[in-house]
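Predict the 3D structure for this chain.
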Amino acid sequence: MAKSLLLSLLIIASLWVKGQITTVPEIPVATKKVTITFDSSKESKLGYFTGELYAHTGVNDWKHVIESWGDNSTQPKLTYKGDGIYELEITPDINTFYSVDKGERVTRMCFVFRSADASEQTSDLFVNVYEDGLVVEITEPSGNPILQKNETVTFSARSSEEASLKLFLNENLLADTTGTEISSDYIFTESGGYWLIAEATADTTVVDSQLVFVRADVTEEPKPAAYKKGINYPSDNSAALVLWAPLKEFVFVLGDFNDWEPSNDYLMKKDGDYFWLEIPNLEKGKEYIFQYLIDGEIKIADPYTEKIVDPWNDKDIPETTYPNLIDYPEDKTDGIASVLQPGQDEYEWEVTDFQIPEKEKLVIYELLVRDFTEEQTFKAVREKLDYLEDLRINALELMPVNEFEGNSSWGYNTSFYFAPDKYYGSKNELKKLIDECHKRGIAVIIDMVLNHSYGQSPFAQMYMDNWTILPENPWYNVESPNQVYHWGYDLNHEREAVKELVDSVNSFWINEYKIDGFRFDFTKGFTQTPGDGWAYDAPRIAILKRMANEIWERKPDALVILEHLADNSEETELANHGIMLWGNMHGTYTEAARGNTGSSDLSWAIHSERNWNEPNLVSYPESHDEERIMFTIKNTGLSSGDYNIKNQQTALARIELNTLFHIPLPGPKMIWQFGERGYDVSINAFGGRTDPKPPYWQYLNNTNRTDLFQVMAKLNELKQTYEEFTPENMDYSLTGVTKWYKLQNGDNHVVALGNFDVEENEVNITLPETGKYYEFFTRDSVEFTNTLQNITLAPGEYRLYSTRNFADPHVVTDLEVVQAIENEISIFPNPATTEITVTSTALISKIVIYSLSGKTLMQHNASAKSERLNIDNLQGGMYIVRI
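Done. Predicted structure below.
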């Protein structure tokens, strides 16, 4: 039976090929020519295709591959025959075509058919290859089907030449004949596994075999109420799986615990539209890989799994990124699979009581893990948190970190909502990053994509035909109602199944990862209203309000941010509901920076200009989506005389000017990663828009770039520290050549001035009061005896005046050497009861007292070398003092 078993495994490997690929001759032989016919319309990941098609191909386990991926000049091109059908001739014979070594046996050909630009492709496809002489092959049933009792099934086989043919079921003879084909009908009355054996005899006898499985009747039984969708752990040695699959008839669980073979012991019980199964006798702490086999045809990972294994991409994840990553069971199954692990150790959170910063004081840093460091990991981001803390941001917005298709991506092709992408590291590394952010007072926001997904999503695969969504899919539209802006497969947010999924996703990340909020991608798409999504849409507003309310029900202070960018009347209603919205100001900030003052009106960055009641506008000059402003102005900046914005030093100073008219404005603000150092690599460089970009940490060796970092960091701190930047009143003029704004809270005032021209100009300003003003950047002061002032500014010059003296934040960059000598700072008495005194040989600007969990308990601004603090309100215990 060893030879028969080998042939059976080859048939398992070629599952899904039947129908897509046919061959002439039907039984290919390694020493002869064979013609491959590929029908793209049949169960193909590529989908119905009519363009140029090339073959990435080899033999056996992808040996003797012909040239390299994507090389159209050397990889074989298929001949288009019309109606989505292609041909490829393997000539003069298989051995010669693939340059197979003499004496090496070919058992199968391997194919991936791809488009000319390699952006579209099939899954791995295989065709069995045989030796010269007599061969027999089972042709029906194809693959390894799940059969039913009391129904007629046809068994058939064929041989490569005239022979005496027999079909057996286990040891029972079903049929015998002479010729090249044989078949027999059969009805099973008992469930279980059976061996189908085809035998051919001429001068010799050869056999082929296939294991066929007959399923038992599905048990109808209510699932325990405590079992939620996905993977449950009743104990440290068991798991309970729950799959919601309306209209499906039966589901098997295949996995490491049953050697990936269908078994009636692993046929899931049914409770209405739920399928569920308890799996006992598992080893505590051990990882097990598994899939669902639905109706004998569809294999998927658990849609709610917190970890997947990927046969295509896991091999490219470095050991340093994800140590001891479990191996994919290549000889057992295909497609993405899920992982369960009973009795796993829980992450011990250091911060459990993090306070989210006030929305009005938010400075959000948008970050793509892939491009932030060379290592491209959660761990590497965590190790750079000193840098972000020095920048004085108080919220970190991570572009999508849940599993997306492929490894290198922006992440907007989400495939699994509950699993962190392993290309960035383990789930505990993500938790460590969040925990460390919280210890530093930095909130964590994650970018969540709930408008669409792509073909690897199990929610899509469960109800799909030839990569087209079926009408009975509970989650997706067959076609998006927005025919202008749409991607992948479109979720129908009016359906109860989608509402439940959305709430489950958001609740999971709040509870499991302690994230502080969400930025939701393309919320214009959360609608069934036909159109391009720009007009006022009441049903969409209701959908988004409902989602936000559910989030706040679970976490009242959660930050909810929408990338909506729709009609202002609609955004106004959402903003007044407490939702924050992205405010794309890229165009006008770019024109302001490049000196085109006629197109640089920054007023739309003020929420009141939009008639919003609350400052819920997250305005930004750049996000991941836009061309980098530094790149633009270094190439197109204007000039006058010796003043030229294309000059790098001048361009960096123009970004400083922009920053003064961005960060301090009322409401939350956002910075795109490396904007603080004037990143000037085009968004379209290094391959294309979404391709990886280098982090260029060496920029910090340039004092002009770190000057920009200093300006941005200081403004970030001012915004979070002084009440003037959460103003009771504001006046401004943000159009034209010179711009200004005035902020007032109580008796304190701030006045900002800037010349956006390429020539010297005078700013005419009415100060809020006469008296002494402090210029923040120069650390100078001036006495104004008249409120009417005409102040001359050089091109690109800016000033920030205040009626009280703001402490210098003393920003650190990698260029500065920070010396910490014990006797320079003293705190006494220590221990203390009601008061402490802090002294230093240098000027003290701020004293902050934290709990050991990182929670800010007291903040004191100063401008002296000795300060006394009343600590009578603190309970007895240990505290961290930052000076």
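The first helix runs from residue 2 to 13.
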